[in-house]
Amino acid sequence: MVIFFNYAVTKASVHDAKETVELMENTHPTNHYLLGDEGYLGKQLHNQLRQMGYELWTPYRKNMKGAKEHNNHQLMAVRRTIESDFSLLTYYNAENNRARSLTGFQARLEIAILAYNLAYCLERFN
Q1: Can you give the residue ranges of the Transposase IS4-like domain (predicted)?
Q2: Whole-angstrom Cα distance, residue 84 to residue 82?
Q3: What are phi and psi of 57, to 5 degrees?
Q4: This model's pTM is above 0.70
Q5: Based on the domain organization, do 77 and 123 belong to the same domain?
Q6: Nearest CA to 4 among 114, 83, 108?
Q7: Distance between CA atoms of residues 121 and 126, nearest Å
Q8: SS3 per-residue string spanning 79-126
Q9: Other CB atoms within 10 Å distance of the CB of residue 52
Q10: Do 89 and 105 have their domain in common?
């Protein structure tokens, strides 16, 4: 399972990769290895994160040159676990947030993340 440390809320038109550098600057994770999906492919993002001391691994698309050698099945299994855990947030109404203000939206989202993290800790440490 995954514990959430930080998040960013953006318009739907903003790509996830654009927020990655800011999230890493604000979070400062102790692990300097990051896993991304195919949406994070791109030399510019990899170079920015490398300058910050992070190594980003993203799987290659199946039709890309060298995909069979690069795509580590263990790392891809970890990625699938992370994506599954993200989908669990729907149980805590993270997607159906019907708040009427930005403050209410943020509060409800943080409550969903807190509930998820508490459930993870209770399951893991009990």
Answers
A1: 4-118
A2: 5
A3: -110, 125
A4: no
A5: yes
A6: 114
A7: 8
A8: HHHHHHHHHHHHHHCCCCCCCCCHHHHHHHHHHHHHHHHHHHHHHHHC
A9: 12
A10: yes
